[in-house]
Amino acid sequence: MLIDEFMAYITPPINKLNNDSTSAHNSSVDSTGSISLRRRSRPGENLIRGFLFSCGAVSILTTVGIVYELGKEALAFFLTPEVNLWEFFTGTKWQPQIQEFGILPLVNATLATTFYAMLIAIPLGLSAAIYLSEYATPKAHNILKPILEVLAGIPTVVYGYFALTFMTPLLRQIFGNDIVSIYNTASAGLVMGILILPLITSMSEDALSAVPHSLREAAFAIGATRVEVAVKIVLPAAISGIAAAIIVGLSRAIGETMIVAIAAGSGPNFTFNPFKSAETMTGYIVRISGGDVSYASIDYNSIFAIGLLLFFMTLTLNIISQRIVRHFREEYE
Q1: Is residue 65 domain-shared with residue 213, that is, in the same domain?
Q2: pTM, to two decimals
Q3: Domain region containing 69
Q4: pLDDT (tens digit, 9 = 90+) per residue, 202-234?
Q5: DSSP tag of 37
Q6: What does residue 101 show for φ and ψ, rounded to 5 degrees?
Q7: For 34, which DSSP code?
């Protein structure tokens, strides 16, 4: 009897607790007696999810639209009877006015200026990144890194005139006026290296700083010097991030426009001499699109063919960058 009275006393609170719990979780009891949970409608969360999806879709649709427009206009160029696809990729003369459509002079000048830029940006950028990551005090780091990144905020047209009015006269004083032309790929490439220097330095420094300090402490414990730790321990451990920084810098240099348009020259010239003028792919696009070329002419359509080729060059570099990062990526706990 005592047990029955005790159970009768505690049953109502337990039932009340169960009812409150199920109502709090917005659940219902089906015919079998089991509880089925229902998802509460959240209009605000659905709105945020839709907004974020729209942002991602806009970026994808923008890329698709760019490729579509480039492909459509480039197809009109390649379907022109005067254009031969083999000649386009192997010819050494680019003069659309006289039916010469060899893209190699423009590609050669683009790769040349990029090469000269990387000669400056890679060693200086990695050296600056190693110093900021391994040697600089916190105070020096907080001062020097923002100053270095200020270079990335200078308009590229300013860099172009800097190459024309400072770097070119400097090269002419060193090598002679007869050797160095007023417009040349060397001055454009060297100043372009200064332009992408902050990009490579910042990305490389972030990769170096991400290496765990335990690796440094272990190397110091066995007697390694600071230089050995930086070069033989930290640098190899951050190789994936450094490789990605270099390839991003390459893509930036290949797509640079104003520096080469101002300082490199405006005439297609197939030459390997860094002190001679040559027109790059982006420089040609600027010159033709800003001139008096009529719409739907072969000259006008040619800039889309060159733009499509430039797009695939940078896309290839990005794919290579992703594969390098996956291959050399190191994960630390």
Answers
A1: no
A2: 0.79
A3: 43-79
A4: 999 988 988 888 888 888 888 888 888 888 888
A5: E
A6: -125, 45
A7: -
